[in-house]
Amino acid sequence: MRECSAAEKRNVQQMVCGTRTIKMMDYRHRIEESKKRLPLPKLMKLQGDADAAFKIAPCPFHDDENPSFSVWRSGRGQWFWKCHAGCGQGDEIDYLAMKLGMEKGEAIKEFLQLAGLWWINKTEV
Q: Residue 85 belongs to a domain with what CATH number?
């Protein structure tokens, strides 16, 4: 069996269950991978806000007669949203927290679950 590289050690936790070793990505890596699998426009569509997943749209968080909501992709490929009327701004997790009225930690778990990358490690409980 080969040794893990330093990068692998940073991104992987190992949990032994009987004779099996289960490799688990750390949260940061799982979140990054989840954002690739479920980018903001796709998440918004899944949550019923497909009409707001544009550069300029009515805000899904308040009654909005003048479009004040925008969604954009940064030069680094990350998706963000902002309500220019003051509701908030952020990434996929911030959107989900606002949409579902959750604390950020719960929104992270929900986002990872929606993207198919949530599992429980005994050390995380």
A: 3.90.580.10
CA distances from 121 to 9, 13, 14, 112, 125 (A): 16, 9, 10, 14, 7
- Residue 2 inside a domain? The answer is no
Q: Look up the pTM and report it.
A: 0.75
Q: For residue range 49-68, what is the model confidence (pLDDT) as tens digits?
A: 999 998 899 999 999 989 99
Q: How far is CA 69 from each of CA 58, 64, 77, 97, 113, rounded to the nearest angstrom? A: 6, 9, 19, 16, 26
Q: Is there a contact between 104 and 97 (Cβ–Cβ < 8 Å)?
A: yes
When divided into structural domains, the chain yields a total of 1
For residue 95, the enclosing domain spans: 27-118
